[in-house]
Amino acid sequence: MAEKFKVSFPSQASTDIEREDPRLNRAAFVEMLLLNPQQVKAIQPRSQRSHYRAAINWMMLHQSSADASNLVKVQGFLEAFHHFCEVEDWGRARLIFQLESPPLLPDTLYRQLNVWGDYFSSIELCCQMLGKFDDEFDAIVLNAWGNSCNELARYEEAIVLYERALESAQRIGNDEFMAAH
Fold first, then answer.
1. Are the beta carbons of 34 and 84 closer than 8 angstroms?
2. C-alpha to C-alpha distance for 60 and 54, rounded to whole angstroms
3. Which residues, in sequence order, are bridge partners of residue 100?
4. Which residues pair with 105 in a beta bridge?
5. CA distances to 17, 77, 87, 143 from 122, in Å
6. Chain segment 53-103, per-residue pLDDT in tens
7. Nearest by Cα to 32 from 50, 55, 53, 15
8. Rounded to a whole number, what is the distance in angstroms from the first to the last CA of the chain?
9. pTM for the whole structure
10. What is residue 25's predicted lDDT score, i.e. its pLDDT?
């Protein structure tokens, strides 16, 4: 069995990116993910190294015109998210899932996708993240997934997801989540 490459990073790392211009500061985000070229070169097996390189390339090199849609502008981060999921680097995938970078992303990426009407991409992110962390995070993921289903008029599925989110919140005693939902 191939050994997984793991890099520790601060669990409380902020997903807010300080920016000097209207584009996402990709270099700052890659730095926050604690990915540097020397670490990436050492990743074994090669297939995992390829996914890390692809994630970095998507985040650093993806260009879009100023008049491109918001979805096109964040495509590099969505692609990087999928590469991190492929190597089961859930911590880095979570940072992208929760990425905020005003003004383009005034809310987390998974919520902003719903605002932009890309419910299927939001659902895809939620499906990847469900069950990877604790009940509190699962409640957030299930609620977001339910919101997407609700917008797609998949009401029965949304209700089931909202109920599961509430159950997760109840298991950890999150009164604030339970009161809001």
1. no
2. 10
3. 16
4. 101
5. 21, 13, 20, 11
6. 999 888 888 888 888 898 998 999 999 999 999 999 999 999 999 988 777
7. 15
8. 43
9. 0.79
10. 65
